[in-house]
Design a protein that fits this description.
alpha/beta; binds S-adenosyl-L-homocysteine; binds FE3-S4 cluster; binds iron/sulfur cluster; 438 residues; 19 strands; single chain
């Protein structure tokens, strides 16, 4: 059935990872099998991210590299998808003569037809937004991949327009999938042997808020938890302003909900939070953290922080470090602010020298490294339920995920893949644990 090879490279967030899975599954129907070798492939697709300037530049560098594969007159298809494709559209085809296809974030359903066009030698760009209910039925399903843990999209897009962020411009308006469709998908996955679902969206906890007839995210989680066979539920990403008491309460009694939550604060100073347009204060953020801890004392937090936002003073930055001290994240993704064309913050004057921004980032990362180890070391000696996902990096080792989302490696036989195993933790590393099967 497969007579062609598809090479796909994915940048950016989990929405892109999920879209890439969809693309692989769609193009399998056209005879494309996935490969890890770009040079010998029949089609190269870059699924791109434009959230920061650096991410976008990486895509352009990669595209420039790819050009060499086409030099010897090979009929290889080169395609760009994702957020840079959405942002640049047709202009990319004009800029890069060796590019065949540009596919926007709302147009995945058109990909098979576009690939056929490209096979006939046509160049095409499709980036029209579909910001209405129609989008819900243009959701190419993922098939043919049996795995233990799977993403389930619950909503797409973002209406928050945080002042620094390009996502609302490249992913379009927020739309929640029908809960009936989501639950049907979860049940189907459970039947296929999936044990963990990760409910996915840019802002999952605003699920259903735009429609009076839809469930709330908390209600949705409770129904997902009722599905037999699903043993763990995670979600990403949640916005602190939409972290309702109803959702917080789920952490008290929905035992399938894992003990880790990603709750990006972005900054610790109210002045900066206000300029970012985040819709919460340091106090309301911390209040939610404390409520979650009260219900689940062993919950762990991960987050995102932007340093060097326009106008961020030394005192503002100290507030961010203090917030970190109070939350104590197990992991933190930190970024230097990057102005994005078309966003509100890009118009703000930003006279903070790069060196100051980098020094702030260094301090923050150093504090985080300390927190990570302080939080992880006490797990040594404890027992964790590990969902074994595959072989570890070292021979004879297996690798899986614990309830708090961290990787656990331990010696074991591959027959354990796909099961839950009790593992006693023997060592904590910055990014994983090592243990022994009990
Ligand atoms: N919807 C998610 C975030 C998606 S973008 C949320 O609201 O949490 C992922 C992260 O990239 C953001 O949380 C933010 O920390 C960072 N980010 C987004 N735009 C940025 C910019 N212009 N400069 C630096 N970091 C940025
Ligand atoms: Fe960007 Fe804010 Fe939307 Fe997150 S919530 S995707 S940071 S605009
Ligand atoms: Fe990047 Fe687009 Fe995700 S800009 S972070 S890939 S939504």
């Amino acid at each position: 059935m497969f007579d062609k090879l598809l090479y796909i490279e994915t940048f950016g967030c989990q929405m892109n990872v999920n879209d890439s899975e969809r693309i692989v599954s769609m193009l399998a129907d056209l005879g494309y099998a996935p490969t890890n070798d770009a040079a010998s492939s029949d089609m190269i697709l870059l699924n791109t991210c434009s959230v920061r300037g650096g991410a976008e530049e990486k895509v352009y560098r990669r595209l420039a590299n790819l050009r060499i594969y086409k030099r010897d007159g090979k009929k290889q298809i080169i395609a760009v998808g994702g957020c840079v494709a959405q942002q640049e559209g047709e202009a990319l085809l004009r800029k890069l003569p060796y590019l065949d296809l540009v596919i926007g974030t709302h147009n995945l359903h058109l990909l098979p037809d576009m690939v056929r066009s490209a096979e006939r030698g046509e160049r095409r760009s499709e980036t029209a937004f579909i910001d209405n209910e129609l989008r819900l039925d243009l959701f190419p399903p993922i098939s043919g991949e049996s795995r233990l843990s799977r993403f389930v999209t619950v909503m797409q897009g973002c209406d928050n327009f945080c002042s620094y962020c390009v996502v609302p411009y490249v992913r379009g308006r927020e739309i929640s999938r029908r809960s009936a469709d989501i639950l049907a998908e979860v049940r189907q996955l459970a039947e296929e042997g999936v044990k963990e679902v990760i409910l996915l969206g840019q802002n999952v906890n605003s699920y259903g808020l735009k429609s009076s007839s839809e469930l709330s995210f908390a209600e949705l989680i409770r129904l997902v938890a009722d599905v037999n066979g699903i043993e763990r539920i995670r979600f990403t990403t949640s916005h602190p302003k939409d972290m309702s008491d109803e959702l917080i309460a789920c952490f008290g009694d929905v035992t399938k909900l894992t003990g880790q939550i990603h709750l990006p604060a972005q900054a610790g100073s109210n002045a900066v939070l206000m300029n970012m347009g985040r819709g919460y204060t340091r106090e309301t953020y911390l209040d939610k953290v404390h409520k979650l801890r009260a219900l689940r004392p062993d919950i762990v937090f991960t987050g995102d922080i932007i340093v060097g936002f326009p106008g961020e003073t030394d005192a503002d930055f100290e507030q961010t470090l203090l917030l970190m001290e109070e939350v104590r994240y197990i992991d933190l993704f930190s970024f230097v602010y990057s102005p994005r064309p078309g966003t509100k913050a890009a118009e703000l004057s930003d006279d903070l020298p790069k060196t100051v921004k980098m020094a702030r980032l260094d301090r923050l990362m150093e504090l985080q490294r300390r927190h990570t180890m302080e939080i992880c070391r006490p797990y040594v000696g404890s027992t964790m339920a590990v969902l074994v996902e595959g072989e570890g990096r070292l021979p004879g080792q297996l690798s899986g995920k614990s309830d708090i989302g961290r990787i656990v490696n331990f010696p074991g036989d591959s027959s354990l893949i796909g099961t839950f195993v009790a593992v006693k933790i023997t060592k904590a590393y910055p990014n994983s644990f090592l243990g022994d099967r009990l």
